[in-house]
TrEMBL record:
Its cofactor is pyridoxal 5'-phosphate. The keyword Glycosyltransferase applies. InterPro entries: Glycg_phsphrylas, Glyco_trans_35, Pyridoxal_P_attach_site. Signal peptide: none annotated. PROSITE patterns: PHOSPHORYLASE (PS00102). It catalyses: [(1->4)-alpha-D-glucosyl](n) + phosphate = [(1->4)-alpha-D-glucosyl](n-1) + alpha-D-glucose 1-phosphate. This is Alpha-1,4 glucan phosphorylase. It comes from Arthrobacter horti. The lineage of its organism: Bacteria, Bacillati, Actinomycetota, Actinomycetes, Micrococcales. Keywords: Carbohydrate metabolism, Glycosyltransferase, Pyridoxal phosphate, Transferase. Belongs to the glycogen phosphorylase family. It is an enzyme of class 2 (transferase). PANTHER family: GLYCOGEN PHOSPHORYLASE, MALTODEXTRIN PHOSPHORYLASE.
Amino acid sequence: MSEIRATHTLALAPVIPPASTVDGFVQEFLNNLNFRQGVALSSSSQNDRYLALAQTVRDYLMARWLEDQRAQFERQSKGVCYLSAEYLLGRQLDNNLLASDLGGIAAEAMSVCGIDLDELRGLEVEPGLGNGGLGRLAACFVDSLATMSVPSIGYGIRYEYGIFRQTFVDGQQAEQPDQWLALGSPWEFPHPEAAQIVSFGGHTERYQDGDVERTRWIPAWNVQAVPYNYMVPGYHNGRVNTLRLWSAVATHAFDLRIFNSGDYAEAVRAQTFASNISKVLYPEDSTPQGKELRLQQQYFFVAASVSDFLDHHLADGFDLTKLPDRVIFQLNDTHPVIAVPELMRVLVDVRGLEWDAAWEITRGCFAYTCHTLLPEALEEWSVDLLGRLLPRHLEIIYRINEEFLAEVRETYGDDELRIRNMSIIAEHPERAIRMAYLATVAGAKVNGVAELHSQLLRDKVLPDFAAFFPGKFTNVTNGVTPRRFLRLANPGLSSLITEAVGPGWETDLDRLQGLEAYADDAGFRTAFAEVKAQNKVRLRHELLARDGLVVGEDHLMDVMVKRLHEYKRQMLKVLHIVSLYEGIASGRVAAAEVTPRTFIFGAKAAPGYAMAKRIIHLINAVGSVINDDPRVEGRLKVLFPPNYNVTLAERVIPAADLSEQISLAGKEASGTGNMKFALNGALTIGTDDGANVEIRRLVGDENFFLFGMTEPEVEALWSTGYRPGEFYQADEDLRRALDLIASGAFSGGDRSTFEPVVSNLLYDDRFMVLADFAEYIRAQREVDAAYADQDAWNRAAILNVARCGFFSSDRSMRDYINGIWHTPPAL
Ligand code: 26V
């Protein structure tokens, strides 16, 4: 081992990488084009050029990467293994050019070759290996860890198909497979030689090992987990961390004998079966067969990751009782929680430790982050399924539960109700493992993702556990990386910030406070407004080219981008729009009196979530009627570009004036889009929910449009009985808006199309849209009034930027490091 490392250092640590000058960059680029792509510049396709450019950047980072992997091993200091089923990375080229500070050189080098760098940028298909906020958070966190030089590795799954590509057919969502690998993936490095075997099924048996009885698992089948490494470069610090994503392949090559006999399908059956495990990212909901595959995915990636760490990252002869001083496995939601019994299995069955010693180690090696409050989003695995797929793990979970409940009994006596409530095993409606409980029992710490969420987690979701484990529960408010979401996405604002507060704010975002003084500087406000206007122009070009959509000129840009879910209440936004339109269409309001607004939606619905898909259909239908109605005089526009993703977010957010964060209080764990908008100088209209609470506290009430019930008010209304019909009867605007939808005005006169949406709001709305409608409209009128005074608006927008430095994911990482991980940077 050590000899190989020495060779690495000798061979691959040139002092100055050749690509660090324009000439060198051109040379490397042409070499890559000729020798890796096998084409001459004159005959190369744009894709060849993109790949050669990516390879040039990648090679530039390579020496540092290898050096950092070596140094991390040599140091053997404590590090984080971030376990996440999702990483929503966004495009790599731009980010890696920025991190390595090669942007300027690359642009010049490309122009020397007669190539437009921006065009190549646009070719990259982003790896969409996540559903939404949770996956994007993981990507922000690995970016911050690299930038802060924290020893860490991200583990996950290399889905062959990421989140589906959304198109609209007659206004309805259609899902296309996301072929992100189709044109080659220059950012990944497969390492088949480091593959792990992951087993499933079978049974367990006891055997005698001297005078101790032990258990062995006799699995029925296994697959190979092949790691693909991705570079995670820190920002301007020469650091390159690793993201290691696992791909599933069959352990046996296909059966040549069967193949020769002509049964081609049977010959490759094992391969097809195995590769299904990493075939596709799960949208949030799924079928029973789908569920089994999802558990396979979860076990697949955590088993491979735990073994990878134990086998390849620990020094020879490492004393496993010291493991908690060497690593913390951070569980990103419940998806990787099966890692807990897996580590126990490895320690007890494979490494031969006593149960108690193994449990002591395991309890010190995990921490759990919860990302939701919706009970239906807390994962449970049926005992039947888990026992079939992972029989040994089920036994281990039973024993963990038995010992845990014995401790509970010691504290509370035979309080059966409490015991049932705290049991890791639910008995109804079927026997199932509560993964959040398992994570809570095993984790050294449990955290929520915003102050309000962490408090509700303690008080409402896991109150018995909070009482039983004092000190275990904590908060870490989410954050976003300022590199991607400010520096890259908003170059205009970034230059302005640098001029005002000096360089370096990208890694020290509290320095945005320095902008505070500039809010009162008229010249700065003008420059700030100019940047926002430029960003709107950029967005206008983008949406026209991408989707043929036309953004209104000089409009207030009112943006709601996030997954489509009833709790997020896109319907409240729709009702507002319909209400404005109804005023004009009925002749009660002159179009000229309405503040010109472009409403931009971006949202994917889980393919099996019928109500969410209907709401998408309705938004598109409302858009096509309003956009085409001459009475509106172009003063309202409703745009819904399909396939909202990280790339589109980077264009939309910097152009926004108004950020819609309008979930029912107590339902949105944190939100992270809310932070991105505020940092880019949009004002928020929002409820007292998730991180909105902290945003409002920081930016000040006068720079935030608050509306709606608080979480205790929501609870109170529920307990006295929520009757949406009463709100409908009492509010004329609301009645008119709902009636217009029900009348078929947006469905060619057909009343049935959107009837389920209307009925849901009137009779069965868990998310109390109608209860908050009046307040929302009131707040939107305040928005109109505030927007009329552009100078005051810009001042408020600047203060939003100045006061949101707290929401850097670097700060989130510091909070995890100080409160949970205890993994200082290795500088
Ligand atoms: C999962 C499910 C599954 C069953 C159907 C309903 C449903 C609804 C939501 C979810 C997502 C749960 C996990 C998640 O993505 N949470 C998000 O995590 C973000 C990062 O912490 C946070 O900002 C968002 O508020 C939170 O929704």
